[in-house]
Task: inverse folding
């Protein structure tokens, strides 16, 4: 049977993990999955139905019945959905409902680069290579403001920073699958690095593993 390669890219919001993961997928000719979209889709459906993201039972039911269209909703990247995504992501029932989908995706040949928070620690602890991308809160907030403005959204930097800090704290302190680098991950701090340098370091690490 054809072997599926899995590369895990984890890190906090706006650390550059999405940019890196997409580029690695193209370079190694693998599929790409932004796993944050799954949690965002659960949150957006809940909010759209006027339900409470803190309701673990309802959130897990929605996670178990996600449809491909849910991942294409226009509101997935709104701040309201971002916050609700990190609330639903702390429910163990939501995480376990989304686990099989992520594993099936990664195991389908030729394999995939997955980006998220717990890919190297929980979803694929046996991934061929794990990369943890991080950066200072200030630079991440600046990057997110730029992204939002480029898409025509209004963004106040101090508010974006505050909301990001809140999400970091929630993602890092939850009991299930908290945000943290796997022991065998390459940690790249992108605070002072451009996308090309980050990409070259990641490729150097992946290729050194003998891929
Ligand atoms: O793009 P950004 O980094 O801001 O967020 P995202 O990757 O789309 O993730 C949104 C939220 O989903 C995060 O704040 C996490 O709470 C949650 N998430 C998670 O718990 N596990 C993942 N593998 C991916 C996202």
Result:
């Amino acid at each position: 049977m054809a072997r599926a390669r899995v590369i895990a890219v984890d890190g906090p919001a706006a650390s550059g993990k999405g940019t890196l993961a997409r580029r690695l997928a193209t370079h190694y000719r693998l599929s790409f999955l932004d796993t944050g979209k799954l949690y965002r889709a659960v949150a957006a459906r809940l909010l759209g139905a006027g339900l409470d993201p803190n309701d673990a039972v309802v959130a897990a039911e929605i996670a178990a019945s996600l449809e491909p269209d849910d991942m294409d909703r226009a509101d997935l990247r709104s701040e309201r959905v971002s916050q609700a995504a990190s609330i639903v992501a702390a429910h163990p029932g939501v995480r376990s409902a989304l686990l099989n989908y992520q594993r099936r995706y990664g195991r389908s040949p030729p394999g995939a680069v997955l980006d998220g928070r717990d890919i190297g620690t929980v979803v694929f602890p046996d991934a061929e290579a794990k990369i943890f991308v991080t950066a200072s809160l200030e630079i991440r907030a600046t990057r997110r403001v730029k992204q939002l403005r480029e898409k025509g959204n209004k963004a106040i930097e101090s508010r974006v920073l505050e909301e990001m800090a809140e999400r970091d704290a929630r993602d890092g302190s939850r009991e299930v699958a908290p945000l943290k680098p796997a022991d065998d991950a390459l940690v790249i701090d992108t605070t002072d690095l451009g996308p090309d340098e980050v990409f070259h370091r990641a490729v150097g690490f992946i290729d050194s593993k003998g891929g």
